[in-house]
Amino acid sequence: MAEWIQIFLVLTPFMAWFFVGVGVPWALAILPRHDWQDRSIVFAVGLALGPLFGTLWLFLLGTFFHFSVLGALGGTIAISCLGMWLAWRRWQQPYQSTMAAYPERRPFIALERILWLMMTIGFAACVWDTAFWPFLRYDTLWTFGYNARVFILEDRIPTYIDYYPQLVPLTFTYGQLIWGEANDHAARAAVPWFILSSALSAYVLGWRVYGQRIIGTLTA
User: Fold this and answer.
1) Which domain holds residue 38?
2) In the chain, how many domains are there?
3) Burial (0-12, 13-18, 19+ Cβ within 10 Å), 31
4) Mean pLDDT in residue range 30-42
5) Do the beta carbons of residue 216 and residue 206 sit within 8 Å?
6) Which of 1, 22, 86, 102 is the 20 to 30 A CA-CA neighbour of 7?
7) What is each CA distance from 142 to 136, 150, 180, in whole angstroms?
8) Whole-model pTM above 0.85?
9) What is the pLDDT of residues 163-185, one digit of tens each?
10) What's the DSSP call for residue 143?
């Protein structure tokens, strides 16, 4: 098996944990109870909160201590467990279910099916392209990918890294930590999850703002 395929397959469950496993419990803890009924909202918020809380922990870990696989995974497990506990407390509270706040769910029309097929093909192409190529573009070579490589080689966040938001570089760092060395393919394993998060957020935003699922699909 080619190394780039192996790296991507090995890191996929770890990235799923970082985005979904960490984020979804917090989405359930933060969202109003009536929003729990819409999985697209829960996963859209979860995919946003996962890297947010995960990289916040990595920032603290790399600033005050040193990066390690045990530290990265242990911290995200603790964050996820706290979110689960808060969500469980919300679930224990009395609640009367209602779907009145949601647009009517109708069968997918032909145009929606075509759009979803196109998005699926496009996403699959992005996944393949991301897994196959190392970093090639200037911004990733000298900012996102560069910072993550420095973090891995230094085993911490150096004091001279004092520019640009670190959410993306620290997510790339997480992938390389799990793989065990600085590797572009390991870092880029996070990219499809960012794409999925952005598309799902756009879908939910378009649907909820305009009240029509087709608008959400077009927005995504």
Assistant:
1) 3-219
2) 1
3) middle
4) 90
5) yes
6) 22
7) 10, 11, 22
8) yes
9) 777 899 999 999 999 999 999 99
10) I
